[in-house]
């Protein structure tokens, strides 16, 4: 056998590998995964068990690999099963329903079948599959939320994998609608249904004014406006930081968006919610 190094998709790292000249297989010495298969049409077996002739120089390096190698060969989908388990853990971390979790697994399996996962950050790919599954099933999550369960994969990595997956899988996912997020974000801070309705209507009206802020920062600013005008004292007592945290936006970002929207308050906040004179209660930015 000839020793070398190569990238193992199971170990997710470059490891020592050995080339079995007799079978033509390249084998990872860490986990026993067959990295490259060039086996002969008549595999070498002994009563159905794989045998490999190993030179004395390589016996020590490979002796601990063979039991795991047999296990891996008996279960060629081992790496896919591990990915599914990881996806399940990620989904549970976000309290996602089974339909989203299962759809994310379908997307990952399609990507794996197209050899997309080889040599790439699998955690970022799994997180991107979750992101797309959430969008397609109508329960969107932000990249920031997804990244909290992505085992260290950054939002930038997840976003890049998301765009690549959309192309290779021909996924026609829509841009996250801020209206879809509003009810969930409002629920986090205990807003009543009437307040939530006012937030959504204000968001829709805000699209008519020339405020160039991200949808999520606009949502945070609108939530803060409505919170100040609410009939519920506990909602009125919410701070800018409380609202920003609920919307997954930095406080400074919410402040800037609020400052931009404030001049249009009488135009975007529905008059059924508060009368014009009540807008004086809003904090002046």
Automatic annotation (TrEMBL):
Molecular function GO labels: RNA polymerase II general transcription initiation factor activity; TBP-class protein binding
Coiled-coil segments on the chain, per record: none
Keywords: Repeat, Transcription, Transcription regulation
Annotated Gene Ontology cellular component terms: nucleus; transcription preinitiation complex
SUPFAM superfamilies: Cyclin-like, Zinc beta-ribbon
All residue ranges annotated as the TFIIB-type domain in the record: 2-36
GO biological process: DNA-templated transcription initiation; transcription preinitiation complex assembly
Family of the protein in this entry: Belongs to the TFIIB family.
Protein name as catalogued: TFIIB-type domain-containing protein
